[in-house]
Amino acid sequence: MAKNSGASTIVDVAERAGVSRQTVTRALNDMVDVSAATRARVIAAAMELNYRPNRAAQNMVHGRRRTVGLVLEDLSNPYFAELASALSRAAAERGWSVLLCDIGGDREKGRAQLASIVAGVDALTLTGCNQDTMDLLPEAVLRGGALGLPLLMLDGADHARLNGRIVLDVDSGITAALDHLVATGRRRIAFIDSESGPDDRRKVYRAYLEGHDLVWPAGTPEISAEESIEGGMEAAEQLVLRAPDVDAALVYNDVMAIGVLKAMSRLHRRVPEDVAVVGIDGLQIGRFVTPELTTLSIDKGELADVALDVLDRLLAGNPAAAGEAKVIGLSLVVREST
Amino acid sequence: MAKNSGASTIVDVAERAGVSRQTVTRALNDMVDVSAATRARVIAAAMELNYRPNRAAQNMVHGRRRTVGLVLEDLSNPYFAELASALSRAAAERGWSVLLCDIGGDREKGRAQLASIVAGVDALTLTGCNQDTMDLLPEAVLRGGALGLPLLMLDGADHARLNGRIVLDVDSGITAALDHLVATGRRRIAFIDSESGPDDRRKVYRAYLEGHDLVWPAGTPEISAEESIEGGMEAAEQLVLRAPDVDAALVYNDVMAIGVLKAMSRLHRRVPEDVAVVGIDGLQIGRFVTPELTTLSIDKGELADVALDVLDRLLAGNPAAAGEAKVIGLSLVVREST
DNA sequence: TGGCGCACCGTGAACGTTCACGGCCGTCCC
DNA sequence: GGGACGGCCGTGAACGTTCACGGTGCGCCA
């Protein structure tokens, strides 16, 4: 038996096989300088003790490798999934690892999860996390300071504790989208907002309307809903109810926009004939709904790359990276829904 | 400067601040027994040296924590995303961590990625990986043996090296789906297969047709395509071309089924009036396409739980778990497409 | 028969951190 | 004035593994 309560170590195996640590290492790692008989004895002992090398100890001697945590609320949301995919690939490109943390709906579970994750990472990236989610972070992380592990927001809102932030160029992006809608003859353009996200998108929209003499006579409809397909559906129903003459909708994100598409179909409003729909995010799924969704696309590969660059500089102690907000452009992808 | 080439350590900070290791630990971890002045000096030194505690060393003394790798080909595929979400949550429930590995399309990059991931995990779970993907694993892992790290397939095909496997009960699942189609009056039922996946689903389908006198007069159409929405679209086009009298299609998975839905819409075949469509997987997105997709749903939470159970037993050295194939049931969720 | 080389194996040391303990100095109280 | 105590700090040891080195015994050849 192993003498300590936990798993068995290499010396347990060595003792059982009647050899030294080093011989165990040699036998189990297919190195030279071990006789066949000894190797067999060691392997037998390792199996009997169910020996598993301690990864932490191995990493310790083999030099540090970098691990970055990715915190999100729901990976089954395709936006987060595509972002995670991009981050995983970009991280692999640099030899980093990404630790996944899907905190889900339960706050207390999420808190425990984050506390556990934090012990294993060198930095944390967050996406779609609002103030509530930030509060779930362990107090020691929140406090931050000199030793605090770098926190980077991949999008979404600002927060005092953040060491860096990637913001989307919603300004020119939304302007381009609205230009496009106007160019195709739309005049009653609504904006469907997220009820939890930041309100910068709505602000740009409003400014555009005012700047282009597009303000609704009876007041621009103010619709916002949950950031989900259901939310988009409900918002669309609200919208046509409150503004029957709407002929275009710019939607906070693609997921909600897909809900809008579905609701329009239910309400027998043809897209794009009766009403045009533009989403934001550039999700792949947008190409497969009917009609295919016009969208303001985010290059997630670029976003991931920039994020890792910032983290790299942060971890390297480059103070220039702290607090900086990198800007990512949006590109309008016109498909069938406009 | 740190004397070693890499990052600075706690003793570098200690030397610079003119204190001992332990005092640095105390100062940086908000412990007692440090004077304010000393604490400030230590923090300053840590900042100047950009000190970051070595996670491996910390984990080493604080006892091992379990990390399981999740290997998949493309997280932007919603099936993998939902699986990853479930696994992340189930793992968190047990205090385990999930290391994400989206290997993407590039074989060589994938190989490097896997080699890198393997150094940090205690076990590997795979999903949707065929023989080709398995070959990307490092030779040392493939060889396996006593010390080999446990490999578990979350679904998909068998492989010699696998220590465990979770199989879906396609038998009764597909039977239920076909029963449902027959009960709603369908007689020309096609099956759209994956060109890369295992062929057990098709076999069940064929046996059912033969057992229920549903074999097509001119031969059952054999359609298979890539496991993607595009693949589903192409398959559907093929299908209506080769079998214009088709009135139902059972599709290998939901992602392909969504493609089928889209193609049917393009071909002006109404779903479900002209042709019924049933997918497999139970993806959330199926509720948001039009019409909503009837599907054979997999409980991904259960799948993840079972997977971690198997890994737990495997890591605990329970030989009963090896080679065992746990079975997960499928439940038919009838929505609008049938 | 001495020496050389090879096959096989063992012993510190190191990785970087935390824990348990012990030491020193000043203050306060009896 | 001596003992107790508290604030502050340092020193081994330990976590589990691998690396670099050194050692032993045996065969082979000059």
TrEMBL record, chains A, B:
<dbReference type="InterPro" id="IPR046335">
    <property type="entry name" value="LacI/GalR-like_sensor"/>
</dbReference>
<dbReference type="InterPro" id="IPR010982">
    <property type="entry name" value="Lambda_DNA-bd_dom_sf"/>
</dbReference>
<keyword id="KW-0805">Transcription regulation</keyword>
<dbReference type="Pfam" id="PF00356">
    <property type="entry name" value="LacI"/>
</dbReference>
<dbReference type="InterPro" id="IPR000843">
    <property type="entry name" value="HTH_LacI"/>
</dbReference>
<dbReference type="GO" id="GO:0000976">
    <property type="term" value="F:transcription cis-regulatory region binding"/>
</dbReference>
<keyword id="KW-0238">DNA-binding</keyword>
<protein>
    <recommendedName>
        <fullName>HTH lacI-type domain-containing protein</fullName>
    </recommendedName>
</protein>
<dbReference type="Pfam" id="PF13377">
    <property type="entry name" value="Peripla_BP_3"/>
</dbReference>
<dbReference type="GO" id="GO:0003700">
    <property type="term" value="F:DNA-binding transcription factor activity"/>
</dbReference>
<keyword id="KW-0804">Transcription</keyword>
<feature type="domain" description="HTH lacI-type">
    <location>
        <begin position="8"/>
        <end position="62"/>
    </location>
</feature>
<dbReference type="InterPro" id="IPR028082">
    <property type="entry name" value="Peripla_BP_I"/>
</dbReference>
